[in-house]
Amino acid sequence: MIARKSLDARDRNNIRYSYTVDCSISREKEYLKHCRNPKITEAPDRSYHFPEYGKAVMKERPLVIGSGPAGLFCAYFLAEKGFRPVVIERGDPVEKRFLTVQHFWETNKLDPESNVQFGEGGAGTFSDGKLNTGINDTSGRIGLVLRTFVKYGAPEEITYINKPHVGTDVLMRIVSGMRERILELGGDFRYRTVFREFCIEKDTLTGILVNDGEFIPAETAVLAIGHSARDTFEYLIDRSPLSISAKPFAVGVRAEHLQAEIDQARYGQDMGGLLPPADYKLTYHSSRGNSVYSFCMCPGGYVVNSSSEHGMLCINGMSYSKRDSDNANSAIVVAVNPSDDPKENIAFQRMLEKKAYQAGKGKIISQRLEDFELGRVSESFGKISPVHKGETVMADIRRVLPEEICLDISEAIHYFAGQIEGFDDPDVLLSAVESRTSSPVRILRDDQLQSCINGVYPAGEGAGYAGGITSAAVDGIKVFESLCSRFCPG
Predict the structure, then answer these.
(1) How confident is the prediction for the chain on average, in pLDDT?
(2) How far apart (Å, rounded) are the C-alpha atoms in residues 51 and 209?
(3) Per residue in 16-72, pLDDT tens?
(4) Is 141 left (phi over 0), alpha (psi -120 to 50) or beta?
(5) What's the mean pLDDT in 231-246?
(6) Where are the domains of the chain?
(7) pLDDT in tens, 207-238
(8) What's the average model confidence in pLDDT over 297-326?
(9) According to the CATH classification, is domain 56-245+440-489 in 3.30.465.10?
(10) CA distance 145 to 485
(11) Confidence label for 315 from pLDDT (cuts 50, 70 and 90)
(12) Which own/partner contact pairs does 53-56 have at CB distance under 8 Å and 24+ positions apart?
């Protein structure tokens, strides 16, 4: 069976796929003992082993607050093990959420509770659906995540290709399939239900308040709220005993190039559809000492209005499974030195988003690279037309982002052109503002993944422990393991 498949395009005259294959042979140990080929080794154990139940009986059903990758995977495996979780989600189920988001892109009328950031599936649902991750995992959790995706509609190749992705269209089917399985096993979903407050006695969780004060009893709650739940972050900082620290993040723009030109630069020739749309991952250290890098690159993708608060504008990149739009897009972002005060980091993000909103009256703001560097509003698009979800207007992005960040972005783009020919073409289209690269806070937890409130388990990207769909799902599985090892179903 294929264990790994990767595309090697370093030599454009010898582009090839590399495979790692698992196979069984007779007298395997004896063969390996005498084998002198370093490429032939014993296959690692990639299996996942579920934890044994703990001794404590869980008297109340576990609550999972948020149904992004961390919350959904935690709830899924809690359900598989008989715990019948209750999922608390402020937005809509994914099918209705898709219609709400489409309506926003068409009319610019925002639903602050169900949008690109909030709703079943989390922010990753409206993304490229990249599933590769840099986390070190020897437990088999990554394989478990990928096999679960395949079970609910993803292609088999994601389990072995080195840069797996599924796209928004496939992700929606996977999310709904996992939800139906949770319901089949006795779990519940509470949509349009906003978490408001923890109820605590002697540092121990007794329940939560939602919406206008409804009390839901609980002895365990998984806090998987996502990186954009700023109102919840503010409550947790101001009124809860949780320990919360500031965490580094990055802000910047999204750059669009013609996908055909990225393909030409990476492959050296027109491959006639034989190879997938080319991608890239780029890093630079600016003359001002700042880290600049590409983030969430979307081959054949779209730039999307991903706002979640009235009067603010932020954007992201998204692709469908075919990755067949005319443009490639990627965030080009600059690492921000965070304040020690997590609320100041949230305020900084909001300040940028307010300025972007005002510059475009809520529409995506765009500018040609040449005009960005000259500080003038573009009069027209060049050879690159926007491929966007949401209305777009021309504006001067340098009036939105701090000058140092703009200088770093410009410097980095010219540097990247030394690696990808044409990367700094004057017609490259920049859009703003990219401000939700990661959570600006971290909710501290102990070795058992529990916060200082007994029974509260922070999880996923919003809590500061993940950076993408797969790593967030893996973190949700870790929290499931901690709960399962402590409790047995009541």
Answers:
(1) 95
(2) 31
(3) 889 889 888 888 888 778 788 888 888 887 789 999 999 999 999 999 999 999 999
(4) alpha
(5) 96
(6) 2-34, 56-245+440-489, 248-434
(7) 999 999 999 999 999 999 999 999 999 999 99
(8) 97
(9) no
(10) 20
(11) very high
(12) 53/81, 53/484, 53/485, 53/487, 53/488, 53/489, 54/484, 54/485, 54/486, 54/487, 54/488, 55/488, 56/486, 56/487, 56/488
User: What pLDDT does 338 receive?
Assistant: 74
**Which of 169-183, 223-237, 329-343, 348-362 has the weakest average pLDDT?**
329-343
Q: How many residues does the chain have?
A: 490
Structure tokens at 7: 């595309």
Rounded to whole angstroms, the Cα distance separating 222 from 465 reads 13
**Residue located via tokens 């495979």:** 19
In Å, what is the CA distance from 412 to each residue of 40, 253, 366, 375, 378? 41, 12, 19, 17, 21
Backbone phi, psi, residue 388, to 5°: -125, 155
How far is Cα 382 from Cα 368, in angstroms, rounded to an integer?
A: 8
Tell me the C-alpha distance between 131 and 469, whole Å.
Answer: 6
Question: Using CA atoms, how far apart are residues 246 and 184, in angstroms rounded to an integer?
Answer: 40
Structure confidence by residue, pLDDT tens digits, 297-307: 999 999 999 99
- 182: which residues sit within 8 A by CB, 6+ positions away? 75, 76, 79, 85, 87, 189
How many angstroms separate the first and last alpha carbons of the chain? 41
Contacts of 410 (CB under 8 A, 6+ apart): 369, 372, 373
How many Å apart are CA 91 and CA 111, to the nearest integer?
A: 9
Amino acid in the structure at residue 339: S
Token pair 């703990």 in the structure block, residue? 54
Q: What is the mean pLDDT of residues 263-274?
A: 83
Distance of CA 91 to the CA centre of its chain: 17
Torsion of CA 380, 382, 384, 386, to 10 degrees: 0
2, pLDDT greater than 80? yes
